[in-house]
């Protein structure tokens, strides 16, 4: 039996995003064994016990699925290459994911979020609470869509980019890799890689 079949899960991280992830995992029927975090006093409000530091991830991967439950894109980008294991995709039961979409391994689809038809999400993406990914959107690996953000149809987002809370990306825009879209921004045109944009309409900061 592979770890994918056991239903057992270990989270990497123990902060606020880990709490959101833990509750989504429990609602989806995962058996949450605990979490790994370098801070010894980190707690998940009674949802899970700390199993040790993050350096033990590959060891725990021998008997359980893993999920990277850290919100910071930079921390996620640095941590992922050193971890070997099977990463669980977690979909909250109140989320809608179209059967014609593709969701990459290790992604989180949060409570009340929507992923519409023919959307393609890379590995380790976060679609946070109430976010909307409309039809034919394409997301690279490790993209974080914050709560209530909306990607209208045919939006493309490069890897390791962050879309802030309640931001709106208009149809057909392309966001390069390693970008940050500020909270509440309205993106009306393409954004090149390694750029931070804010405002309505969104402009480089």
Biggest β-sheet, characterized? 8 strands, mixed
Low-pLDDT regions:
none
Number-wise, the strands total: 23
Strand order of the largest sheet: 5-8-11-14-17-20-22-23
Helix content: 10-25%
Mean pLDDT: 94
Description:
By secondary structure, the chain is an alpha/beta fold. It is built from four helices and 23 strands. Helix 2 links the parallel strand 1 and strand 2 (31-36). The protein is globular and about 45 Å long. The mean pLDDT is 94.
List the helices and strands and how they pair.
Blueprint: H1 3-6, E1 8-12, H2 16-27, E2 31-36, E3 50-52, H3 57-60, E4 65-68, H4 73-79, E5 90-91, E6 96-97, E7 102-103, E8 108-109, E9 114-115, E10 120-121, E11 126-127, E12 132-133, E13 138-139, E14 144-145, E15 150-151, E16 156-157, E17 162-163, E18 168-169, E19 174-175, E20 180-181, E21 186-187, E22 196-198, E23 203-204
Parallel strand pairs: 1-2, 1-4, 2-3, 5-8, 6-9, 7-10, 8-11, 9-12, 10-13, 11-14, 12-15, 13-16, 14-17, 15-18, 16-19, 17-20, 18-21, 20-22
Antiparallel strand pairs: 22-23
Describe the structure in brief.
With 205 residues, the chain is α/β, with parallel strands linked by helices. 13% of the residues lie in helices and 28% in strands. The strands form four sheets. The chain has an eight-stranded mixed sheet, covered by helices on one side. It has a six-stranded parallel sheet with strand order 6-9-12-15-18-21, with no helix packed on it. It has a five-stranded parallel sheet with strand order 7-10-13-16-19, with no helix packed on it.
